[in-house]
Amino acid sequence: AQTVTQSQPEMSVQEAETVTLSCTYDTSESDYYLFWYKQPPSRQMILVIRQEAYKQQNATENRFSVNFQKAAKSFSLKISDSQLGDAAMYFCAYRSALGAGKSTFGDGTTLTVKP
Amino acid sequence: DADVTQTPRNRITKTGKRIMLECSQTKGHDRMYWYRQDPGLGLRLIYYSFDVKDINKGEISDGYSVSRQAQAKFSLSLESAIPNQTALYFCATSDSNWDRAKNIQYFGAGTRLSVL
After folding, report:
1. Residue A38 needs a FRET pair 20 to 30 A away by CA distance; which of A5, A28, A83, A87 works?
2. Do A108 and B31 touch (CB under 8 A)?
3. Which tens digits make up the pLDDT trace of B19-73?
4. What pLDDT digit, counting tens, does each position of A18-62 carry?
5. CA-wise closest residue to B85 among B113, B45, B47
6. Cβ neighbours of residue A74 under 8 Å, at least 6 residues apart?
7. Do A103 and B104 touch (CB under 8 A)?
8. Closest to B78 (Cα-Cα) out of B26, B32, B12
9. Interface contact flag, B42 A44, Cβ < 8 Å
10. Could you give the CA distance from residue A55 to residue B14 in angstroms, rounded to a whole number?
């Protein structure tokens, strides 16, 4: 079974600064997908960014980028130019490319953005 | 309108009561999922369904049952609610014919359930 570990229960960043959230995972599969979700107080799960394991290039979405290290099974999220609206819980998730398409989630990192 | 709609958004019930959480989707996806989120933890899979006739248990299915009434509807039932089922419940959908460039699960807004 796959596991996802987020070792930072809480992080804080000054507005306009850069912060990196860590995620490691364990799997024996070679084909899979990794995701970062944002969960603000509204509870909605919002997809932030997605990475295909078969792609070496790191995904980027505006101020959000990832550092995907497949051999190390690491998938960190970098938020540049942090904004107050970035404050939320962030979840890392693993999804197999095969089978049922179930997702395995980490326990989340609460990000605080200080003005 | 939301693509994945969960009802109710919030519910308070008493121990021993039967309760149903409903999920409907307009995305035309064949796969649907129910997850549970406890405070400080990630989402854990309760049940998932490939289509109307294919329902499977997830990692924490004890105490829950589901019904896939139609491709667009997937309900989660607590036959006899207990306090440790107090949690945030999410429904999600995905398409088995997913584009390899996407492979995204779409989540509803969640149902907060409190069992007293």
Report:
1. A28
2. no
3. 999 999 998 888 899 999 998 889 999 999 988 889 999 999 999 999 999 999 9
4. 999 999 999 998 889 999 999 998 889 999 999 999 888 999 999
5. B113
6. A22, A23, A24, A67, A68
7. no
8. B12
9. no
10. 49
